[in-house]
Amino acid sequence: MPNGGSPASESPVMASVIDDLAWSDGRRRKALIVVLACLWAGAAPHWLGPVRGLLPAFGLTLMLGGYGFSTLRRGRSSAAAVSSAPPAGAVVPAIDVLVAARDEEQVIARLVQAIAGLEYPADRLKLWVMDDGSNDRTPEILNQLSATHSFLQVRRRPRNAGGGKSGALNALLPQLQGDWLLVLDADAALTPDVLLRLQPQLHDSALGAVQLRKAVVGADSNWLTRSQALEMAFDAEMQLGRIAQGGIGELRGNGQLIRRQVLLDCGGFNEDTVTDDLDLSFRLLLAGQQVSVLWNPVVDEEP
User: Fold this and answer.
1) What is the domain partition of the chain in residue ranges?
2) Architecture of the CATH domain 95-301
3) Distances 33 to 36, 40, 53, 71, 277 between C-alpha atoms, Å
4) Of 102, 271, 272, 295, which is least surrounded by CB within 10 A?
5) Residue 220, CB half-sphere, CA atoms under 13 Å: how many?
6) pTM over 0.85
7) Are 82 and 201 in contact, with CB atoms under 8 Å apart?
8) pLDDT for the residue numbered 230
């Protein structure tokens, strides 16, 4: 090392560590400010009197409202950003698509056909469906489809096996070999180029998981579907804005991609909670794994 140089300025590893620490400290400061503000707003009315005691609540409301407005603005800017291309000559990662299906005779064939239509190398893509004790024609339909689609792998377990969706997905994990796992609901709908458009994120070593924006099939059908579509769009923009300000992203179950080894290191899917996607988001955070949220491409689902 030449005289006068500092280790931090010449070591990429050290520079990365310093950047990570600065980002983490900034997020901790924000969290501390919010916690202190909430404590102040809760305690202050006890000694300010009945009228002036409302001031802390108004102040906290303005602060949270300002944060929400700022986050939405940042989220809209992030949604319009274009991802950088993956390295030239990079090999596309192997992807295992996971679906837990129970009584899905109305939609399971459509999903299999959608996966068959994806623009992706055939030797790098498999669809794993766990028939979770279906009582309708789902097993029959899957048998017919597996006879004509070599990428489709069907497994079955009893209806009372336990663990819900998480239990069904965990039962598939020992058989998987893909670099990334794409978790879909049986009613999911994808565009053919979705996996190709995800290549920049899948080649980003800093990411442990990616969440696609969820949308509603036939969003303009009625006021209920329009409201649901609005809620999903609002959630995605808030997440994008939060990430842009140093916050964290969260998984939403349908349309989530996770590095297989990262998931195994986190202990798989939690079978003891009904909010397994949120639970996994927190476990990824504790493991130091970043979650990216994308505005496009989207994953559509039934209302």
Assistant:
1) 7-80, 95-301
2) Alpha-Beta Complex (3.90)
3) 5, 10, 20, 17, 27
4) 272
5) 0
6) no
7) no
8) 93
